[in-house]
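Encode chain A's predicted structure.
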Amino acid sequence: MKIGIDARSILNPEKKGNIGVGHYTYHLLRQLQKIDKQNEYVIFLDSTVREKDISKFQKDNFSVKFFPYNKYRRFLPSRYKDIMLGGFFNQENLDILHIIGLSSAVPPKFAGQIVVTGRGIGSTKHPELYPEKTQNKSKRINKVLKANEDHLSLIVSSDALKKDVINLLDIPGEKITVVHEGIDERICSQRDEGKIKEVKKKYNLSDRFMLYMGTIEPVKNIPRLIEAFKKVKDQSSEACQLVIAGKDGWMADEIRSMAVDLGIEKDVIFTGYIPPEEMASLFQASCAFIFIPLYEGFGSPVVEAMACCLPIIASDINSLKEVAGGAAEFVNPYDVNSIADKMLKFSLERYDIKGQCEKSCNQARNFSWEKCARETLGVYKSIFNSQ
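Encoded structure for chain A:
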């Protein structure tokens, strides 16, 4: 097989470009390089990627191609960009083209089979939680997916997401394969007290804090998280800090201002983007992890928290119940009082967390990027053999 992978989302694997879709693409490619020495792969990148990063992917049966119109594509209408994409991919005579992320364009003129990895359709299911630009882009991409249904297969990261795609995008279930995402091995690194001390000093963190990790945006339900934390602080002076770690998204400034308005800004720490090399130490330093989004396609922060054997509070939405299993205590993400009750329980030092930590460690063993890559390769083979 000759397989093309649109890896433009990586941008720079060692910097901030590996968030979300780029993170997924990076780890999938690295594992495919380890397990598949037979098939030919063409990795499509933007010319902005640094030379030393390119060398990671340009080896053995993997080659790299650059998009020829990177410098001026932003000036082109979407329709023309899509046509040019199809022509560019067709030049490579690919059997399969893999596009990762539903925010990427599906080239309408591509002649081969297309695999699309979808990690969430939040802007379709909950449009009110996203800016209008994102909503409009999702509508356009959903139409293209439906139009290319005959030669398109979907990989989604959870059974819950598969059901959403069937119900909301009207794509048949036989076109969809569930492949769970993996865990970055750096998260599973051995506890280093020196690094933990450095991270706590850098971000001005107390000895006990509860951690949220993810983008700062409405769909992550951070306003209710802050409101619930205010209730916790009103009930107990023993309550730990709340650390909100992640890059800014839509309405981040308004979300941050809530802590000031409620008078708890000293106990709510916004760290901003966390580099990959600091993530393990930040997880390990925390007393618990809280992740209560209103929508989530998979929930990789929960998997990462489980890998660090943390007690977890999570939304009782289907995707997180699927991923966390019995390793989390679930709450209604719309119920501020329920969220506050769980936070109070977890934040008090006398709460026994040993059993919950063991459940997290055990559940995390179900996820690996090698497993994700093997199952993705299985999808490629199934498509190729059915032609």
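The chain has two domains: 2-182+368-385, 185-364.
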